[in-house]
Amino acid sequence: MNMLKKILITATAILSVICYSTTAAFAAGFDVNNDDSVNVNDVTFLQNEISNFNDKTDYDLNNDGRVDVNDISTLQIEISNNDIKNIEANTKLSVTTNEYKKNVGDTVTFSITTNNAISDITYSSSDSSVAKIVSSDKNTVKVKVNKVGSATVTAKQCSKSISVKFNVEKAKCIDISEWNGDINFNKVRKAGVTCVIIRAGYGKDPNQEDNEFQKYYRQAKAAGLNVGAYWYSYATSVDAAKAEVKNCMKTIGGKEFDLPVFLDVEEYRQAILPKRTLTDIIKTFCNGMRDNGFDSGLYSAKSMLMDSAYPDEISSNYLIWLAAPNESYNKLPYFVDIHQYDWYGRVDGINDKTDLNYIYNLNY
């Protein structure tokens, strides 16, 4: 009988994680006690018959020519099978919100309510470049929206599914440094700004952290803004770019960003470098950020990028944040992800003028 219990436990454990797509009725032969239902009472009845050495052929449920504990195992599996079919047929999935309107850079976490505990829920996105599934557990999924557009995230359990639509618009973003003074980030957020890119510091030498970076970072996070950073570069060689990576990491190490860390390239001394040299400087810094776990990209003026580096090589590997305040986004190069469209913008919560940007894409 201990062997019998082991067989039954094993059968039940296997079935507990499986979904069935059919709901076929029991064969009448499994109703061994003839009470017009098939359940645990049939198992008890069959156990007694076998214990009394009854080898009636009607009890040979697995059709192996014998009546033994294997027939009890077959009966138990069939009962478990039917229970799961019934559960699956009545599975119901629901969410509190079926549609989200978000801005590029936002993250949404939502839960699935289900009455079915026999199987995990799986998730998929119709376009992961728009709505990317960052993580999920049994009933919760975290989605990051990375590009203007629409996408649907679908949760599926057994044969049942439910979908949530994401409509994603460009994000309004400010970039700031210590020169912006005191900022009321709650007012900034209420003014419609959803993203901020903060200068972390500049150059390769010690003590060149932006004086307001730590405060800005804490306050912007607390206000619910999506936060990124930039590092102002003076590098004229690959070795200097490596030193800037190390210096930047002293400031941003351990921070969590919603947006990338950008290298700010705009010095004249860099513009007159050979294109190959400047391109390698940019790649060195961006790769250094990635090696430390951060997404990365380049900030520069249109003329600087197009005339002093290899733009196709850079844009195929990193995000491009372009300063072009006198041009519309539609007239910019196809690879521009963030457009700095104003250097003299006004935003509630900031006393003086500030740079304004639109973020269209965070995929590279």
Poorly predicted residue ranges = 1-18, 20-26
Q: For the residues shown, what is the average pLDDT?
A: 86
Please indicate the percent range of residues in DSSP E strands (runs of 2 or more): 25-35%
| CATH-defined superfamily of the largest domain | Glycosidases
Give the helix tally.
Answer: 10
Distance between the termini: 62 Å
Task: Provide the CATH topology of the largest domain.
Answer: TIM Barrel
Oligomer: single chain
C-alpha-based Rg, rounded = 31 Å
- Spatial shape: elongated
Number of domains: 3
Strand order of the largest sheet: 10-11-12-13-14-15-16-17
Total number of β-strand segments?
17
Write down the secondary-structure element order.
HHHEEEEEEEEEEHEHEHEHHEHHEEE
| Main sheet summary | 8 strands, mixed, barrel
Pfam family, one: Glyco_hydro_25
Keywords: Signal
Family: Belongs to the glycosyl hydrolase 25 family.
Protein name: BIG2 domain-containing protein
Describe this protein's structure.
- With 364 residues, the chain is an alpha/beta fold.
- It is 30% helix and 27% strand.
- It folds into three domains: 2-89, no CATH class; 93-169, Sandwich (Immunoglobulin-like), CATH 2.60.40.10; 171-359, Alpha-Beta Barrel (TIM Barrel).
- It has helices spanning 2-15, 40-51, 69-89, 185-190, 213-222, 238-252, 268-271, 275-291, 302-308, 311-315; strands at 93-94, 99-103, 107-111, 113-114, 122-125, 131-136, 140-145, 149-157, 160-169, 171-176, 195-202, 226-232, 261-264, 296-301, 319-323, 338-345, 354-359.
- This is BIG2 domain-containing protein.
- Residues 89-165 form the BIG2 domain.
- It holds the Pfam family Glyco_hydro_25.
